Amino acid sequence: MITVLPTAKPPGPAPANDLSKSPSFVMHERGRQHDWEGVGLLSLKSFVQGEAWYRAGGGHYRLDHRSYLILNHAQPYSIEIEAEREVESFCLFFEEGFAEQVFQSLTANNDRLLSGPDRRPAAFENQAMLFFERTYPHDDTLTPLLTNLRLALASQPQPDLLWLQEQFHRVMAGMLRVHQAVAGEVETLTATRAATRQELYRRLYRVKDYLDACYNQPVDLEELAAIGAFSPNHLLRTFKQLFHLTPHQYLIARRLDQAGQLLRETELPVTEVCLAVGFESLGSFSWLFHRKTGLSPQSYRQANR
Questions:
Q1: What backbone torsions phi and psi does residue 86 show, to the nearest 5 degrees?
Q2: What is residue 14's predicted lDDT score, i.e. its pLDDT?
Q3: Which residue in 72, 103, 299, 300 has a CA-CA distance of 20 to 30 Å to 18?
Q4: CB burial class (10 A; 0-12, 13-18, 19+) of residue 247?
């Protein structure tokens, strides 16, 4: 289902792989397979069930019901979905300049707004606003807005245009609040120039998102450093500064979290769970899992049924 804002035709086949000049729209889809590659609008991507793989700007993202992904305007990206069970996505796409207009309405004083409501704020005179492209865990700021909008659209396939416009403004205001909170995280990095801190943050999250996406595959330090365009030593130092874990510690924690989910939600034997999340040794997996939870994998499964 595609719901377009305002009253223009949905992004059509000319060209189907370039959405950068499209109007704002919502895409709520279900299916088992989907592949697309092209240039997109500023977008907020979420999944109600199932998962998808995105590649954008050198980053790899595995997206499921636990997080959402923000990609900037005119960012080339690809998406791949191939699943045995139905996948449900809910994605919002914002036309060019929309974020800047909402930012201006939230930050400019009334005199400036009345004198030029269509004028872009000074910070964006020559450039679009850039969000930090990364996965974000669901939160109390954006998640309720997304959920309410998805449920409302499911119950009214032909929504009132004014109502829908208001929802887009509310979601964008939420995205800007999240962006402001992220700016506080950026300031924890020790670099003199603000631009350097922002670039470090983007590269470190590219590495983190890669670990989240590929947690069940073998990785090494040289590979991770290349993904973030770091030297290995620089990656080790700055990754721990931001995430308070080394890349290896983060990877182990990610694997154990996923193992816990599989133990709770599936009937896979413990050995298959061990292999599915990337461990090669059942003994090491069981020892690490017990150290984290205080229970063996089998006892954990029984306690969470």
A1: -65, 135
A2: 42
A3: 103
A4: buried
